[in-house]
Specification:
By secondary structure, the protein is mostly helical. Helix content is about 30%, strand content about 0%. It is elongated, with a radius of gyration of 27 Å. The two termini are about 50 Å apart.
Length: about 50
């Protein structure tokens, strides 16, 4: 059943509220031990099967 049919059946024409976009002015990101993560050297693991 569509929204228009539901509204006319119940008799209510309440306005709906829908968030379309969110504006974010400031964002902070905390990464504990971030320099230590970049100093660790590791070889990438690649597996190829033919």
């Amino acid at each position: 059943m569509s929204d228009a049919a539901t509204n006319s059946a119940t008799g209510s024409n309440d306005p709906s509220f829908v968030i379309q976009r969110v504006y974010l002015k400031d964002l902070s990101l905390e990464q504990p031990n971030a320099p230590g993560i970049l100093l660790v050297a590791s070889e990438p693991q690649i597996q190829v099967e033919l």
